[in-house]
Design goal:
The strands form 3 sheets. A 5-stranded parallel beta sheet has the order 2-1-3-4-5, with helices on both faces. A 5-stranded parallel beta sheet has the order 7-8-9-6-10, covered by helices on one side. The protein contains 20 helices and 12 strands. The protein is an alpha/beta fold.
């Protein structure tokens, strides 16, 4: 088994080297950092199992660095704070923020080794790194969103919240933010439970948070089940957060969304901005995603050069966070240099530009189809009953445009002139499978 890695952060060279020698004698790998800047770099590149962190440093105090790691989703290792002139208040503040323990200098050998051993056992139960609301950005529009969520988190009534925004905007990060520590979380994927046993869902998630990711995927019976669930949520101390990328009032007018459910959900609602609305956050987001990819896999960590980050910021992101995450993952996996360059970003962002998927010179860039194929379909159906002929034509129509739209359901709905809910029902009726 590989020896555990310990990062020692202290501005006094004598203390750093003494701790290194002691811990190396015990079989640990030790890296040293003389200040917060070096500690940040080491945290990203080496993934230490434990950090010994001095409170008083010239560029940034240890408490501030601890808060930074905590808010950025990087506090996934035990941190043992150290100080030669600490107070009880300082120790309490450090442990409240997330430090594992507090050691006063000079540190006794046995106390050091015992605390390190206990911290290693504790590390097995720490959460893994994941994206959180802090990663979404610091732009004014995102800060305002966070402030509103903070206000909602401080209340207990009403129990429901509606998040409105395009797919990939980060609605689930907002829902996660509202989840209280050490309470249950459920992202509902089996919507039929809403129709058959909505109160059983509440029992399962008692004292926690239920997240429903796209309301328009619910049929009328499931919508009524959700309405009942929200009405009973207070009894089970459950917060219900729903999100949608569709115009619910219009769907309600068209008879596709329950009027009473819309009224309840409209009581507290927030719009979550699309990624393209806060592009200034993209450089920080790219670095955060790269760090998390490094945390969760064996991908070698690479930094972005300035030109690469600027290119990412200036690009269009119709797929939101999911698209950005895929691009960053691709760049980490396929870039060859020590840093991810502007050329790397151009290579990945434009890799489909010259693919032979498109008809040369076509304005709408649709997939090439034989010119007489549509007429052949129509001709072969003229002797069939009207309903069968119509179904076969509609099946051909939707399959044709689904392929042209690369299975983008929003684009297909726009081409067909249908609401998304109506489109899904039509495809199901025609037996056309939708790619996940």
């Amino acid at each position: 088994m590989a020896s555990k890695r310990i990062l020692v952060v202290d501005d006094e060279i004598g203390i750093r080297e003494l701790l290194r020698d002691i811990l190396q004698d015990e079989g640990y790998q030790v890296e040293l950092a003389e200040n917060a800047a070096a500690a940040r770099a080491a945290r990203l590149h080496e993934r230490p199992d434990i950090v010994l962190l001095d409170i008083w440093m010239p560029d940034c105090d240890g408490i501030t660095l601890l808060k930074e790691w905590g808010s950025g989703g990087l506090l996934t290792m035990p941190v043992i704070m150290m100080s030669g002139h600490g107070t009880i208040d300082t120790a309490v503040e450090a442990t409240r923020i997330g430090a594992f323990d507090f050691l006063e200098k000079p540190i006794a050998l046995q106390k050091l080794l015992k605390t390190v051993g206990e911290a290693l056992k504790h590390s097995e139960h720490l959460p893994k790194s994941e994206m959180n609301l802090a990663n979404l950005g610091k732009s004014p529009i995102v800060v305002a969103l966070k402030d509103r969520l903070d206000k909602i988190a401080a209340t207990t009534s009403p129990r429901s919240l509606l998040l409105i925004g395009p797919k990939g905007c980060g609605a689930e990060l907002c829902a996660r933010f509202l989840q209280k520590a050490n309470t249950p979380w459920l992202k509902l994927t089996e919507f039929n439970q809403l129709a058959t046993a909505p109160l059983d869902i509440l029992e399962t998630i008692r004292d926690g948070l239920l997240y429903v990711s796209e309301l328009t995927e619910l049929n009328k019976t499931e919508q009524k089940g959700l309405l009942l669930l929200i009405a009973k949520a207070d009894k089970y101390n459950v917060r219900v957060v729903c999100s949608t990328s569709e115009n619910l009032p219009k769907l309600q007018t068209d008879g596709l969304f329950d009027h009473n459910l819309l009224q309840v959900l409209s009581a507290v609602s927030l719009r979550v901005p699309a990624l393209d609305e806060h592009k200034e956050d993209i450089p920080d987001l790219a670095n955060a995603i790269a760090s998390l990819q490094f945390e969760l896999s064996d991908i070698e960590y690479r930094e972005f050069d300035i030109a690469a980050l600027n290119s990412l910021r200036n690009a269009d992101w119709p797929g939101g966070l999911a698209q950005l995450d895929a691009v960053i993952h691709n760049l980490l996996q396929t870039s060859l240099g020590k840093k991810i360059s502007l050329e790397d970003v151009h290579r990945v962002l434009h890799q489909f530009d010259h693919a032979k998927l498109w008809e040369s010179g076509s304005e709408d860039r649709r997939v090439v189809k034989p010119k007489n194929e549509g007429m052949a379909i129509i001709g072969s159906n003229l002797n069939k009953p009207l309903r069968e002929a119509r179904d076969e034509f509609e099946r051909y129509y939707f399959e044709y445009h689904m392929q042209a739209a690369m299975h983008n359901m929003s684009k297909l709905a726009e081409i067909a002139g249908l609401e998304r809910t109506h489109l899904y029902r039509k495809l199901k009726q025609l037996g056309i499978k939708i790619k996940a």
